Amino acid sequence: MIDKVKEFLAEVSAFNATTSEEIETFRIKFLGKKGILNDLFAEFKNVATADRKEFGQVLNSLKNNAQEKVNQLKESLENNQELKGIYGDLTKPEEPIELGARHPISIVKNKIIDVFSRVGFNVSEGPEIEDDWHNFTALNLPEYHPARDMQDTFFIEKDPDILLRTHTSSVQVRYMESHKPPIRTISPGRVFRNEDISARSHCIFHQVEGLYIDTDVSFADLKQTLLYFTKEMFGKSKIRLRPSYFPFTEPSAEVDIYWGLETEVDYKITKGTGWLEIMGCGMVDPNVLKNANIDSEKYSGYAFGMGIERIAMLLYQIPDIRMFYENDIRFLEQFKSVL
Q1: Is the preceding omega at residue 160 within 30 degrees of 0, hence cis?
Q2: I need a surface site. Which of 63, 79, 122, 233 has the fewest CB within 10 A?
Q3: For residues 122 and 183, what is the distance between their CA atoms, to the nearest angstrom?
């Protein structure tokens, strides 16, 4: 009988389980009311008196070992389940990390920067909270100038001298103040205007403005630069310049590209004309050069500016500017394949 108990001890020692069902089956087999230990204790009265001490010792060892085995296996199984709850099934094969996507505004901004960097333009940046001088006065917009009404402004704490910049032309003023000609720079960034939000306009948007100052810069140089940009950005080789007004350039113009009338969408976005406005431009006003301490008798230059959202809406046929700011994952995932 003692040898039989020792065989059970060896079985308990060798037992292992990976599920709670296997552990429960083992517990019932040895520790249940109708289990092996219950039967062995019932046989105790039949053991010879000389063997009872040894039999009792090995029987208690079997009981203790069986209980410890059950507790040990349960604890191990609970720990594994807790890890799986935190980290998932650690035994599953590794899955590829899901890639994110660049925001369409970032994609278009980087494309514009790349196009102009190939012809020598560097990138300049400046603060979003500006003062009146850099945002208005230095750009030929003195106090009470009626053209200030063209840009509804967010002022900081009702201070008329501190505001959220309404264009990145303020960066160009700062750049001219700290650099000597020749100057060839573009200034991408976020700007703010106190406008109603709709499908076509927003109070927050992004611009890229360009500036080139050197000796003997002409309007023809400006036109060639813009033609180069439209070819590289849109694949369009036909542009037109319409007379316009900007306080900091003279003469000034609006730039249109011929989009074409090949599809129904073309008719819709161009209103049947085939032409689309993409930016404003002009020759830098001599007063702006003087305000930045640049000799307007020696140097001349041109400037241009465009809305990044406007360009992105044209490139990707996005119908509503508000989609750029809603962070809808379904919208953003469409740009995963776009570099």
Answers
A1: no
A2: 79
A3: 9
User: φ and ψ at 3, to 5 degrees?
Assistant: -60, -35
3-class SS at 292?
coil
**Amino acid of residue 265:** V
Which residues does 148 contact at the CB level (< 8 Å), separation at least 6?
136, 141
Q: What length is written for the chain? A: 339
Rounded alpha-carbon distances, angstroms, from residue 316 to 35, 104, 320, 321: 74, 9, 11, 12
Give yes or no for a contact between 185 and 214, defined as CB atoms under 8 angstroms apart.
no
The pLDDT of residue 225: 96
The DSSP annotation for 113-145 comes to HHHHHTTT-EE----SEEEHHHHTGGGT--TT-
Is the pTM higher than 0.85? The answer reads no
Closest to 248 in 3D by CA, of 289, 219, 277: 289
Beta-carbon contacts of 16 under 8 Å, excluding residues fewer than 6 positions away, are 73
CB of 187 closer than 8 Å to CB of 121: no
How many CB atoms neighbour CB 190 within 10 A? 14
Minimal CA–CA distance to 283: which of 214, 232, 236, 333?
214
pLDDT tier for residue 147 given thresholds of 50, 70 and 90: low
Distance (Å, whole) CA 276 – CA 296: 33
Whole-number Å distance between alpha carbons of 184 and 177: 14
